[in-house]
């Protein structure tokens, strides 16, 4: 019987999902006094037992030795060697040892026989592979979408699961952000009046944070505390009549640079780092709570407070120096080479400090708050970026790219080639890592799933397992093949998962293409999952109307806007073949989304509670992509009618926008039975004001259907005068 390559791969993958009973006894040798070695052995042992092996020290058939600090291996690297009955897992450090055990465990779960293991090895591409995690207390923004995670994030069981996920996906650092973290962690010795908590309440917080840092250390994870700078506790403000502007902890406030606030901050930093030795580093964010300060004043404040507090702690620490727009602007609010030079000089100076562990990570937001758009670097926070930070190549700091996701939280997503392209674009030696995460979403409580539906996950991040697996594994090793992600689907869903990776890879391009076509700036200017964006005229987030789609500039310079395309067509001008014109984009969306729908058609979703959601999310992205394609075609026809007339153009516009509405109805049909009306930070700030009323606004695709339908009426009422 003839079998093609794909058929063979499928059979191998399916065999990997079967539960063969090997029955051989296996002994794992490791340093039982080491929590890190014990954790690695536990991960490996679980996988081995799951495939029918037994763990025994009595006449074992196979012996596995795991150890760290192999002299020939670098940090986080590992090597595995086997000769049938003896396997050695060596790590360049404890983290590498854990990764080696995970790799061997993955091999076994996919059907590999321990006796057949020969050699395996990997080493990291980036030194920093971090999660940006905004804690729900004292948050940067204010919304029910953030507040509802409070209890979940106070549960150490949640953190254990989240940290395990990070380790599994080779993500090596957890960065914890909020406006003023200190009083949740310590009672300042010199300023006990700053604490709002009783002794019992504070002990609960201390137990929580001590537990997080302990579990992180046991998993060889780095932890960073990143405050949003010149904020103090409300109790401290009232007691000393300082920083009164930030009583509500709104980040757009004037900086209080009084000596008292400096001393308070400096001592809080030092005490926190002394009381929590598990913290491995801190971050600087030179923007929030620093209104009215020059770049020089901001850097000086950091030096006198957080940096000095780190020195006073008496510890060797790591540092992330975030470079937001507000720290590199001149008095006119314009980014300049001079201010970039100042920031580079300060970062380089920090790299010389003996109590800071090199390299310093100089952090920039990749394509502002919407990295899930184009892998081409178009802008950073503030827009313009010169080459100051890269030339000459830095010696004691590395660039870290923050890949923010403010674009999709509910629908599952995963496009491996997009992340590979991101990494390939940033292969320069001065790039040291990535940080992934959101500021308008916390991956804790599942507030998406409708009540009464039986599911086999507990936390929100478990729904987005593919997102974390793709980003983490590829940041560690960009050569990780799709077979790794494919086998993860097969492990979860058996043969019904065969087409899901390819389907997600196709349908998941929909938000990326919207972000590439529709220009954006800060967090709330685009929400791709809802096909929504900030309307500057009314100062609120709304469905992207056909007129907005026509007029909005593009993000990716290789894309062509609807307005520019119609104008060029009227002048009989053509575009270079590498340009993505609206008709070309519509065709790409139609082809990929139709194929994604074909791939998931006929999947039997009855075998696993999560499978109906996986299929539905592919379908939702696909129908949204088809909606997008019809909307583009309708926008082109409508703009053509407005500029040069022609009844046929108007009829085309109406026809395509009616088709777009029908595809939107498919999105509603698929999502309504599964998903709640959801709180959304993007809706919390309407007309530039945060109010209690706005705070409770909810999102669902069905709720904005009337706005989708308005496009048809706009086309019907159009004139070409």
Automatic annotation (TrEMBL):
Residues in the signal sequence: 1-25
Cross-referenced Gene3D superfamilies: Chitobiase/beta-hexosaminidase domain 2-like
InterPro entries referenced in this protein's UniProt entry, alphabetically: Hex-like_dom2, HEX_bac_N
Key words, A-Z: Glycosidase, Hydrolase, Signal
Species, as recorded: Cnuella takakiae
GO MF assignments: hydrolase activity, acting on glycosyl bonds
Top-rank taxon, per record: Bacteria
Beta-hexosaminidase bacterial type N-terminal domain boundaries: 19-111
GO biological process terms held by the UniProt record: carbohydrate metabolic process
Protein's name in the database: Glycosyl hydrolase family 20, domain 2
